[in-house]
Amino acid sequence: MTYSYVSHLQCPVCQTQYDTEHIHQLCACGSPLLVEYNLEQLKQQVKREDIQQRNPDLWRYHELLPVSSSEHVVTLGEGMTPLLHLPTLGERYGINHLYMKDESLVPSGSFKARGAAVGVSKALELGVEEFAMPTNGNAGAAWALYAARAGIRATIVMPQDAPQITRSEVALAGASLFLVDGLISDAGKMVAEKVKQDGVYDASTLKEPYRIEGKKTMGLEIAEQLGWQMPDVILYPTGGGVGLIGIHKALKELQQLGWISGTLPRLVAVQAEGCAPIVKAWEKRQERSEFWEQSTTIAFGINVPKALGDFLVLRALYETDGVGIAISDAELLEVQREVASLEGSFVCPEGAATFAAARKLAADGWIKPDETVVVLNTGAGIKYPDTVQTEAPLLQIGDSIVGR
Ligand SMILES: *Cc1c(COP(=O)(O)O)cnc(C)c1O
Ligand SMILES: [Zn+2]
Question: What CATH code is assigned to 83-110+212-383?
Answer without folding.
Answer: 3.40.50.1100
